[in-house]
Amino acid sequence: MNDQADGERRISTRQAAELLGVKPATVYAYVSRGQLTSRRDPVGRGSSFDAREVEALALRSRREAAPPPGAELSVRTSLTLIEPDRYYFRGVDAVDLASRYRYEEVAEWLWTGTLPRGARFTAPPEALAAARRAVAALPEHSGPIDRLRVATAAAAVTDPLRFDLSEEAVLGSARCLVPTLVGALPEVGAAGWRGDGRLARQLWSRLTAQEPDPDALAVLDLALTLLIDHDLAASTLAVRVAASARAHPYAAVSAGLGALEGPLHGAAGRLAHRMLVEALERGGAAPVVADHLRAGRRVPGLGHRLYEGEDPRATALFARLEGVPQAGPALAAAREVVATAAARRGGLHANVDLALAVLTVSCGMPAEAGETVFAVSRTAGWMAHALEEYQERPLRMRPSGQYQGPRPPQPMP
Questions:
Q1: Lowest mean pLDDT among 48-57, 61-70, 175-184, 289-298
Q2: Quick check: 90 pLDDT over 70?
Q3: Distance, CA of 108 to CA of 175 (rounded, Å)
Q4: Confidence (pTM)
Q5: DSSP letter assigned to residue 395
């Protein structure tokens, strides 16, 4: 069957099955999942398919079935590329992009491939009120990830369209969730300082009681933008697994927050902050680094397995922090940490956690502030990955377990 009436090549169910290497019944299963579209044959009793659509699905299936040699798990993405000395968002140098555009604009770039100048995010009143009530009910000792997880769940309940996984609906959820998370966090200090509608200004008052000067606020916005995505970190992979199971975007973000709370992922900034505070209190970084090495602990804020030299995010933040007068002492301490560790161990360079710690220490923010910045920023990146994953075959992230238990049959216990 080759129907050319609409300028497209149509093929039969049997031909589609042969191209895909499946049974005819499986072809109709693809139709029911929304992966193929069929057209009823007006003359015969079968259906026809767009040949190009079938060929594209066959190519995609072959790629998914054959991951690159040596790769434990390979996930196609058009969002972030990491090279030994830099990284890119949709093919554009990420540091250059973050230096010229604000966080909301770069979020739109990741989500849609467009860069709307002056983009702003607004939290829906109902979602914001629900999130604030939920966060307010938590114990005082709750951490930032506790608050953000609860706020995410509360916001989800107020969104009746959360199960709509169309691109338009997910984009709407993304633009609403990020400012809702920030607005749900308690403000610091009694002043209740308000800025303009930019997300960095809203977040600032949740991190410190200090009023922001323009240079410090610009560093916070730069940090948010640089951290927005970094390929398949553990939390991002958790988001994609949830999205592969067709969890709604709020649930996918919750999965990312759960992974981020692990001590090997989101807590690194907190450790770097405390190290810099101790270095400032003791008048130098050398004894602090020595204590870490003596105890067999790795020095926080140093090293990144994906970069050969200094983390480009750290380089960009350090350069911008040089223009913030109050950052001088913490910046000097950070550089002393790097120099001391390099003299004793070699090959270790600053990563973004150390640079972010300079910002949090110098602006009167608590130790967990870096974790908050990271989680808020990365929420937009997680949404971008969820958007990508919703376009893929459902439940494709199903690795096979390597069973190593006793061979059956075993006696009944």
A1: 61-70
A2: yes
A3: 9
A4: 0.81
A5: T
Question: Which DSSP category does 350 fall into?
Answer: B
* Stretch among 56-65, 297-306, 351-360 having the lowest mean pLDDT: 56-65
Could you give the CA distance from residue 355 to residue 376 in angstroms, rounded to a whole number?
17
Query: Distance between CA atoms of 27 and 154, rounded to whole angstroms?
Result: 40
pLDDT attached to residue 1: 47
Tokens of 211: 């009023």
Kindly report, residue by residue over 5-17, the tens digit of the pLDDT. Answer: 445 788 988 898 8
> Within 10 A of 15 (CB to CB), how many other CB atoms are there?
17
Quick one: which of 237, 217, 395 has its CA closest to 323?
217
Cα-Cα-Cα-Cα dihedral sign, residues 168, 170, 176, 182? negative
Instruction: Provide the pLDDT confidence category of residue 44 given band limits of 50, 70 and 90.
Output: low
C-alpha to C-alpha distance for 363 and 327, rounded to whole angstroms = 8
Taking each helix axis from N to C end, the angle separating 13-20 and 24-32, rounded to the nearest 10 degrees, works out to 90
Under a CB-based contact definition with an 8 Å cutoff, are residues 303 and 355 in contact? no
Computed on alpha carbons and rounded to an integer, the radius of gyration of the chain in Å comes to 25
Question: How would DSSP label each residue in 271-330?
Answer: HHHHHHHHHHHHT-SHHHHHHHHHTTPPPTTB--TT-SSS-HHHHHHHHHHTT-GGGHHH
Sequence-distant (≥ 6) Cβ neighbours of residue 380 within 8 angstroms: 103, 107, 110, 111, 174, 178, 228, 229
**C-alpha dihedral, 348 to 350 to 352 to 357, nearest 10°:** 120
CB 208 within 8 A of CB 363: yes
Under the banding of pLDDT at 50, 70 and 90, the label for residue 4 is very low
- Over residues 114-142, the pLDDT tens digits come to 999 999 999 999 999 999 999 999 999 99
Instruction: Give residue 5's pLDDT.
Output: 46
Render the burial of 106-135: b for 16+ CB within 10 Å, e for the rest: bbbbbbeeeeeeebebebbeebbbbbbebb
DSSP 3-47: --TTSS-EEEHHHHHHHHTS-HHHHHHHHHTTS--EEE-SSSSSE
By C-alpha distance, which of 135, 254, 120 is closest to 179?
120
Instruction: Return phi, psi of residue 185, to 5°.
Output: -75, 140
Give me the residues paired with residue 86 across strands.
Answer: 83
The distance of Cα 151 from the centroid of its chain, to the nearest Å, equals 17
The token duo for 154 is 């509360």
**Strand 38-40 to strand 47-50: parallel, antiparallel, or no bridges (unpaired)?**
antiparallel
pLDDT over 70 (residue 346) = no
